[in-house]
Amino acid sequence: MKAMKMKESQKRTERGGVIRGLTSVVICGLFLLSINSVQAQSQPQQRAGYPQQGNSQQQQRQQQQQDEFQPYWFAGAGVGPRVYFGDHNRRMEVSDRFSFGGDLFFGRQWSPVIGSRLGYSFQSINGATQNGSFATSTSSYYIPVHRLYKQEYNVGNLYADLLVDASNWWGGYRPDRFYSFVPFTGVGFAHAYDEPKTTSWSLSIGILNRFRLSNNFDLVLDARGALVSDKFDHEPGERKGEGILSINLGIICSFGK
């Protein structure tokens, strides 16, 4: 019996080795195939006996557009929902966490890829508190089992962003491109206007999605995550920071473009 079990174990080991070997071969083959595919896409296709006239003209046109680019100013505005991530907010009903706000900003596109903007966001924040800070009422608990009161307070965030137009970076500059993918990062200061007032640094990261409407107007979907101090809502905990998530739908007007 022991001998039969050992033989069966050896067979399973051999089968496992074969399967692992075949898997490695398949993975290596797919990896090499993907490399060849990328190389084939990156290399211009040329028919035998014919020069790459079309590709050369396209490159010349893109280079001409790049040379014709002129820095321009822009201004924009947007409105949309807000969600605050604090110490106790996860215990709230999802629908109670959402609030509303807006952004105003202006900036300059320095090159086809690099831009900057200065802006101000304003929003009402909904949260939950144990110590009563920013509480709408302390006469009764919002969540009795956790002894939490409901919070509501107004916040402003002054920020400066660095914008990177990834579409122009990866695909070349095209002034008539319909959609542009623009990641950004920024720094600023957030301030709570209600008592007890508080101020904190803020660090932002997000995506500015631009949809071309005309030469001077773009529709934008602006998603931002802003990190603030853990003490911003006057509920100090063991977190390294708290956050404000905002999503705006708005418009950008470009000047001298």
Q: What is the residue-averaged pLDDT?
A: 80
DSSP summary: helix tally: 4
Order of helices and strands: HHEHEEEHEEEE
Q: How many domains make up the coordinates?
A: 1
User: Tell me about the biggest sheet?
Assistant: 8 strands, antiparallel, barrel
Poorly predicted ranges: 1-52
What structural class do you assign from the helix and strand content? Answer: alpha+beta
State the shape. elongated
Keywords:
alpha+beta; Porin; 4 helices; disordered N terminus
Concise overview:
The chain is about 25% helix and about 45% strand. By secondary structure, it is α+β, with helices and mostly antiparallel strands.
Please give a structural write-up:
- By secondary structure, the chain is an alpha+beta fold.
- It contains 4 helices and 8 strands; from the N terminus they run ααβαβββαββββ.
- It has helices at residues 2-42, 53-68, 94-97, 166-171, and strands spanning 72-85, 98-109, 114-129, 149-164, 179-192, 198-212, 217-228, 242-255.
- An 8-stranded antiparallel beta barrel has the order 1-2-3-4-5-6-7-8.
- The protein starts with a helix and ends with a strand.
- Residues 1-52 have low confidence and may be disordered.
